[in-house]
Amino acid sequence: MSELVARTGRHQQRYENGYRLIAGCVPFRYKSSGDCGNSDSGKNVEVLLINSPSGPGLLFPKGGWENDETVEQAATREAIEEAGVRGDIMDFLGYYEFRSKTHQDEFSPEGLCKAAMFALLVKEELELWPEQSTRNRSWLAVSEALGSLRHAWMRDALDCFCKWHEDKLVSGT
Predict the structure, then answer these.
(1) The pTM is what?
(2) Of these four, 19, 79, 117, 155, which has the most CB atoms within 10 Å of its CB?
(3) DSSP for 68-117?
C-alpha cells in the first residue's frame, strides 16, 4: 500500500466565474534513440498517459486545484496521485476549457472546467502511488499519444507541448 494518500472531496476546490479550476501536466521523458544519444537531437520524447477508470481512452494527469496550493503544486500533486511520477515543472503550456459530464456541482452546475496545463520533466517513477489500483501508466511517442488521448482539449495541450519543446530545442534554453 502506498504511504501517499490522494486528496478527495471538493471542500477546498477553487472556482472562478462558474468554472471549476483544474491543474494538470504533460509528463515527459527522453528516451535515447541510439548508443551515443547524448544530445537533444539524439533523443526521442515520450509522454506519459494514464487510463481513466470511467471509460476508454487515455489521459494526462489532472485534477482539482485547491485553495491551499499554487497551481504548480496542484499539477505536481496530480502527477503523483494519478500517475505515480515526480518531476520538475518546466513551463506553463496554457489554459484549456472543457465540460465535464461527471463533475457537475452547485458551483459549476454545467460542469465547466478550466485546466492549467504544464510540461513536467519526469525524474522519478514511483513503485507505489495513491491511485495505482485504478490507473495504469503508458509511455508513448507523441504521435501515438495524439491518437490515444480521449479528449480533444488534451490533444490541443499536447500540440502546445510539441511547439514548446521544439522552441526549447531551437533556442537551447
Answers:
(1) 0.85
(2) 79
(3) TS-HHHHHHHHIIIII-EEEEEEEEEEEEEEE-SS---SS-TT-EEEEEE
Separation of alpha carbons 86 and 25, rounded Å? 11
Q: Which residue has the cell 496554457?
A: 94
> Could you write out the three-class secondary structure of 32-78?
ECCCCCCCHHHEEEEEEEEEECCEEEEECCEEECECCCCHHHHHHHH
* CA angle in degrees (0–180, nearest 5) for 120-123-125: 100
Distances (CA, A) of 114 to 37, 147, 158: 38, 23, 16
Residues 58-92 have pLDDT tens digits of 999 999 999 999 999 999 999 999 999 999 999 99
The cell for 53 is: 477508470
